[in-house]
């Protein structure tokens, strides 16, 4: 009975995985200069910037983030997710990030709807393009219309 196995925390698989995650978070923060996005949000944004016109299913395959988590990332933000169409990208359109974008038809949005965007550059020139709403289901649409999933849930509870 005197041969008790001793527990070594530093060799515990759970502890090692926890430390690996901490290390990854530190590396991510250093690499991104402390931008205020999560690692998952960054993965999605990075995947979107690499290939134009991806579907939600393709994003799931590229990022390893499951579909419900991916939808949750977008719905929590209460932001209208839009995708370029027809091989367009921010690069092909010559966008710099200082443009003003005006969207038409957002109040009547439906899943996977086309949305007209007028992009006005700082020099006053503008171009009109068509984007696709990356809202795939009626539930995601409800979350968006309520300003995100948190507001949706609170309104549902208040109504009950």
Description:
This protein starts with 12 loop residues before the first helix and ends with a helix. A hairpin with a 5-residue loop joins strand 3 (114-120) and strand 4. It is an alpha+beta fold and 160 residues long. The protein has one domain (11-159). Helix 5 crosses helix 6 (149-159). It has 6 helices and 4 strands. The chain has a 4-stranded antiparallel sheet with strand order 1-4-3-2, with no helix packed on it. It has helices spanning 13-32, 39-50, 56-63, 67-77, 138-145, 149-159, and strands at residues 82-84, 100-104, 114-120, 126-133. Helices cover 44% and strands 14% of the residues.
Describe how the helices and strands are arranged.
Layout: H1 13-32, H2 39-50, H3 56-63, H4 67-77, E1 82-84, E2 100-104, E3 114-120, E4 126-133, H5 138-145, H6 149-159
Antiparallel strand pairs: 1-4, 2-3, 3-4
